[in-house]
Amino acid sequence: MIGYIVKRLIVVIPLLLVMALFTFIFMQKTAGSFYDSLRMDPLISQQTIDYYENLYHLDRPLSVQFLHWVANLFRLEFGYSFYYNIPVIHVIKGRLWNTFILSLASLILTWSVALPLGVWAALRRNRLIDRLIQLLSYIGLSTPSFLLAILLMYGASQTGWLPLGGMRSAHYEELSILGQWWDLLKHMAIPAVCLSVYSIGSLQRLMRGNMLETLRQQYLLTARAKGLPENRVIYVHALRNAVNPLITILGYSFSSLLSGAALLEIIYGWPGLGNLMLTAVRSKDVYLVMASFMMSGILFLIGNLLADILLAKCDPRIRYE
Amino acid sequence: MNNTPKTTNKQPGLWGYLRRNRLAWTGVVILGLLYFCAVCADFVSPYSYLDENRDYSFCPPTPIRLVDSDGRWQRPFVYGMTMGFDRDYRRVYEIDASRKYPLRFLVKAEPYKIMGLIPGSRRLFGVEEPGRLYLWGADSRGRDLFSRILYGGRVSLFIGLIGVAISFTIGLIIGGIAGYFGGKTDEILMRMCEMFMMVPGFYLLLALRAVVPPEFNSVQVFVSIVVILAFIGWAGLARIIRGMCLSLREREYVMAAKAMGVSDFQIILRHILPHTLSYSIVAIMLSIPSYIIMESALSFLGLGIQDPFASWGNLLSEAMGIVQIKFAPWILLPGLFIFLSVMSFNVIGDTLRDYLDPRLKAENRNM
Q1: CATH superfamily of B14-18+26-36+150-366
Q2: DSSP characters for B2-53?
Q3: Closest CA to B355 of B13, B2, B29, B3
Q4: Rg (alpha carbons) of chain A, rounded to whole number
Q5: Tell me, what's the pLDDT at B305?
Q6: CB contact set of A243 (below 8 Å; sequence gap of 6+)
Q7: Beta carbons of B81 and B68 less than 8 angstroms apart
Q8: What is the 3-state secondary structure (H, E, C) of B331-348?
Q9: What SS3 class is residue B67?
């Protein structure tokens, strides 16, 4: 098991580098560069641009630029952001944290609502409550998050209950610790709910499906036949097996979570990684884009690895050689 | 998929099954109608998607009337609208009962070609020129929202079908091979998957969208968005299929097939992949909508289909200015269409799953 984890982590490094290389080529080979737009600005002299291009080695051949960047990686430097003129890592750090808490809030909301709902629906199959849960899931699955965000923001603008965007109120610094948390939660409410509605619907359905499938298995018949109490049959024997396939999805959901978060960040003005990425891609801030990609890649891999380990722990039939 | 209906000699065919399920049938009808209207948008809609009249910016819907202001019954007609400003200098439109425009059918219009094939020069209905027919209101440039929604359906509805066809074929094959063979093959294929999955789809979408040259025309942008979406979509599916195959290949019937000398490819195709079917069907039906939503999201942000052309997402982008919703609530209508089509796909997908999963069916009969 430990060998497997170490192997995975080692394999990841070249993978990340290949990804960075692709990003680099993509960013460099497409029309325009960051300094092209500055060149049009009569207020910025050619010397300034030359100075920066020299500073960031932009006057060297592309291969040298890339190798230079890779060499710096080993010193944990991810290059400089052209726009902010500070190391990329400083730009990303705060943004990454913002995205992380938004995603975490959504993840907790999703799993804590979807799993119980799915199990409940499966146990009350075809009854009224099951139908109701399925109907709500359909509606949740079919409402695009950005549409929901617009509707909720419109509601918020009419009632004034929730802030309309951003992450902090203007008077955030003056609030007490508790007040700051409350402020953050209020700002988080709309994007986190919009982010979770789809995944609650789909996870609930998968959970219900798996649970129903597990309930038909013969080992449950055996468990009942040998006289186990019904609660134990369902919550220990059935539930554990029904959750297994979802664990793979947990690892996968990290990346879709970041994706969904990116969209909502842009709409809601949440200062996260996705929001940063959009501006970076648009302004061709090459190293910022590469580093954002790598960060999201690392996040995804950690999630995936955790899911793999969790799956192996839960299901002894799955072996990793 | 072709070896599944064999067990169903007593059951009605797929079509009959869909037909008997009221909810699913509603979905089929809605989708059928939407696809028909989208394909024949040139004929069904009263205006072209380009037809703008800036005097009617955010003009409210003009209902088709049968009774005029004096209470007399007439042929269907619409009243003219006059624009004015209220005290806050907002545009307000008032019905001008002195101008009546009868609704005409099969009116002559600019010649068009339905999907570039069938030529025509008449539209199903419309009103004469100084009058404007806004069934569902107008957008900021005074273009008819009803027409633009129909035209937008072409992009929004077809992007899902094409995208899922590409990504699903790749995902199923690669997932099956990786899960079944395991070892080195699995390792290499999964690393490949991870390359695609490591970056969240939306980030990849943003980056790849930046690669598409700005001088591309609308068709080229459409195609490149489909390709980008499919490119992102297959890896997730492959990984899940592979996860299922990992445990499926340990089952006795796979051992039996192996012992009988069935070739690996046959085992994957006939004995392993069919077991992932009930999941895959749900996955297909869940992913067509996600393509529709992804395209809408991209266009909503102004990164997908660009303005003179319509897609449901880019129509909805007018609602981005939250305040506008209060004065022109009809700009949310494209969202309703995204919702309806996605909902229909979900409902049909579920019904399909019930049909294709014989074990579930057996249980249904007993109950």
Answers
A1: MetI-like (1.10.3720.10)
A2: TTSGGG-SSS--HHHHHHH-HHHHHHHHHHHHHHHHHHTHHHHSSS-TT---
A3: B13
A4: 24
A5: 81
A6: A115, A207, A210, A314
A7: no
A8: HHHHHHHHHHHHHHHHHH
A9: strand
Give the helix/strand (H/E) hosting B95: strand B91-102
pLDDT of residue A240 exceeding 50, the answer is yes
* pTM for the predicted model, two decimal places: 0.82
Across the interface, whether the CB atoms of B197 and A255 are under 8 A apart is answered: yes
Please list, residue by residue across A31-53, b when 16 or more beta carbons sit within 10 angstroms of its beta carbon and e when fewer do.
eebbbeeeeeeeeeeeeebeebb
The tokens describing B51, both together, are: 């037809």
Provide the ipTM: 0.80
Angle at alpha carbon of residue B216, lines to B213 and B218, rounded to 5°: 135
Give the closest residue to A251 by CA, choosing from A319, A321, A312, A320: A312
List the beta bridge partners of residue B122.
B108
**C-alpha to C-alpha distances, B87 to A189, B56, B90, nearest whole angstrom:** 36, 19, 7
Q: How sure is the predictor about B365, in pLDDT bands with cuts at 50, 70 and 90?
A: very low
Cα separation, B304 vs B292, in Å, equals: 12
* H or E stretch at B107: strand B104-114
**How many C-beta neighbours within 10 Å does residue B174 have?**
22
- Laid out side by side, the sheet with B65-67 consists of B65-67, B73-85, B91-102
Question: B198–A212: do the CB atoms touch at under 8 Å?
Answer: no
Burial class of residue B53, CB neighbours in 10 A (0-12, 13-18, 19+)? middle
Burial-class residue B261 by CB neighbours within 10 Å (0-12, 13-18, 19+).
exposed
> Taking CB atoms and an 8 Å cutoff, what residues of chain A touch B190?
none
* Residues A283 and A292: beta-carbon distance below 8 Å: no
**Interchain contact, B320 vs A142, CB within 8 Å:** no
**Contact residues, A window 291-320, toward B, CB-based 8 Å cutoff:** 292-293, 296-297, 300-301, 304, 311, 315, 317-318
User: Which of A23, A147, A298 should be substituted to probe chain B, the one whose Cβ sees the most B Cβ atoms within 10 Å?
Assistant: A147
pLDDT at B31 over 60: yes
Of B91, B73, B59, B78, nearest to B131 by C-alpha is B78
Decide if A245 and B199 are in contact by the 8 Å CB cutoff. no
> What's the average model confidence in pLDDT over A155-174?
85
Q: What single-letter amino acid sits at A10?
A: I
Of A97, A146, A145, A88, nearest in space to A293 by CA: A88
> For chain B, what are the domain ranges?
14-18+26-36+150-366, 62-133
Q: Alpha-carbon distance B153 to B160, whole Å? A: 11
Amino acid code (one letter) for B344: S
Q: Which amino acid is residue B159, in one-letter code? A: I
Q: What is the pLDDT of residues A29-60, one digit of tens each?
A: 776 777 777 777 788 888 888 888 777 777 77
- The angle at the Cα of A190, spanning A258 to A105, to the nearest 5 degrees, equals 50
Name the token pair of A251: 């690892």
